[in-house]
Amino acid sequence: MYIFMNPNPVKKLVGDCVIRGISILKDQSWVQTYTDICRKGRDMYDMPSSNSVWNAYLIDSGFEKKTIPNTCPDCYTIIDFCNDHRYGEFLVATGTHVVAVINGDYYDTWDSGDEVPIYYYERK
């Protein structure tokens, strides 16, 4: 279920999870994803790290934002999400992290499976 993957060209492990996750989902280089999101930030007159910028980038790229029901706010994990979403491509967001999920597997630089997701983007 957990698959180590780090598309960062110099293998940095922190601070760029949005870029890593999106580049994995879009099957494009980290540099291309970073450049595209910076361009989107410029067009929106906002920083590329702003949630609104990468949200708009994902929506423009054919993803749909969805929330996770608050039935068990502290016990539903990324592992649970993967078990419930065996097919499809998703960017799953916690309060401080995002991770790419493809067909029930999550791709990250560390095993974030116990993190609690709040919302996600699904490729349409």
What is the mean predicted local confidence, pLDDT? 95
Order of strands across the biggest sheet? 1-5-4-3-6-2
CATH topology: Cathepsin B, Chain A
CATH class: Alpha Beta
Estimated structural class: alpha+beta
- How many helices? The count is 4
**CA-based gyration radius:** 14 Å
Shape: globular
Beta-strand percent range: 15-25%
Main sheet properties: 6 strands, mixed
Question: How would you sum up this structure, described in words?
Answer:
The chain is an alpha+beta fold and 124 residues long. It has a single domain (2-123), classed as Cathepsin B, Chain A (Alpha-Beta Complex). It is built from four helices and six strands. Helix 1 packs across helix 2 (30-44) and helix 2 (30-44) packs across helix 3. The mean pLDDT is 95.
Question: What features would you highlight for this structure?
Answer:
124 residues; alpha+beta; Cathepsin B, Chain A; 6 strands; 34% helix; globular
Helix-strand blueprint:
Elements: E1 2-4, H1 17-26, H2 30-44, H3 51-60, E2 63-67, H4 78-84, E3 89-93, E4 98-102, E5 105-108, E6 119-123
Parallel strand pairs: 1-5
Antiparallel strand pairs: 2-6, 3-4, 3-6, 4-5
